From TrEMBL:
GO cellular component terms, A-Z: cytosol
Sorted UniProt keywords: Disulfide bond, Electron transport, Redox-active center, Transport
Any one GO molecular function term: protein-disulfide reductase activity
Transcription is among the record's keywords: no
Keyword Amino-acid biosynthesis: no
PANTHER family for the chain: GEO12009P1 (PTHR45663:SF11)
Organism of provenance: Saonia flava
PROSITE patterns xref list: THIOREDOXIN_2
Domain of life from the UniProt record: Bacteria
Family note: Belongs to the thioredoxin family.
Protein name: Thioredoxin 1
Residue stretches making up the Thioredoxin domain: 1-98
Amino acid sequence: MSKFGELIDLNVPVLLDFYADWNEQSTSMHPVLRDVAAALGDKGKVIKIDVDKNKELSQALRVKGLPTLMIYKKGEMVWRQSGEQDANTLLGIINEYI
């Protein structure tokens, strides 16, 4: 979990995508997140977290539905939502925290 703290304790917004390869909504978000990451450049980060490989973290953050998206800034969660989002919506939300 200490690695997780290092990931989210940044001055730029960090978008976390909790996903599973067996979940169709999760996998359909992959190209959207690639676009978001490309548009953000160094103004933010996008990190994908496989819930099957990170069960302890997923449980600690109470991830129930997939995909679950969270934005952290300076170690604090500032936004969270479950379900698919489009790139423009995500960029609009992330830009509020840049």
